[in-house]
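C-alpha cells in:
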C-alpha cells in the first residue's frame, strides 16, 4: 500500500527564481509523515510519534512552480530491527510527473529513556502495512 497526501504550494514556498525553494521539498515529505501518523496511527501531536528522524535525502528531478497541484506518495521500502525507511515521490496530481524522489530513515525511540528502541508491535505493523 502507498500513502498519498495532497500538498499545496504556498506563496512563501516560492523563491525569487519563481520556483519552490529546495528546502521546502523536505517540508513536503514531513507533511506526508505527519499526516500518516496523525490520520492512520492516531497520534495527536508530534510528542506521540514513537520515532526520531535519522536521515533524509532528496533527488530533485525538475522545478516546482507556483500553482502546481502536488501530491506526496509515501511507502515503506525497508523494515529493520530498530529502524525503517520511507520512500517518497513528489509528483503532479494530474499528470503524475515526478518533481523529486526522497528517502527518510526513522528510528524507533523511547523519549522517556532518551534512546533508540526495538521496532515492534503496533508501530512495526503500521509501517509494514505501507510496503508495496
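Residues out:
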Amino acid at each position: 500500500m502507498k500513502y498519498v497526501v495532497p500538498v499545496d504550494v504556498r506563496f512563501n514556498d516560492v523563491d525569487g527564481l519563481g520556483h519552490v525553494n529546495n528546502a521546502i521539498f523536505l517540508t513536503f515529505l514531513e507533511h506526508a509523515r505527519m499526516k500518516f501518523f496523525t490520520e492512520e496511527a492516531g497520534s495527536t501531536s508530534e510528542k506521540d510519534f514513537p520515532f526520531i528522524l535519522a536521515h533524509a535525502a532528496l533527488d530533485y528531478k525538475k522545478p516546482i512552480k507556483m500553482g502546481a497541484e502536488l501530491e506526496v506518495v509515501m511507502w515503506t521500502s525497508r523494515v529493520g530491527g530498530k529502524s525503517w525507511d520511507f520512500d517518497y515521490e513528489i509528483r503532479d496530481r494530474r499528470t503524475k510527473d515526478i518533481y523529486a524522489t526522497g528517502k527518510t530513515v526513522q528510528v524507533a525511540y523511547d523519549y522517556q529513556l532518551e534512546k533508540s528502541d526495538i521496532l515492534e508491535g503496533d508501530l512495526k505493523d503500521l509501517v509494514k502495512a505501507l510496503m508495496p
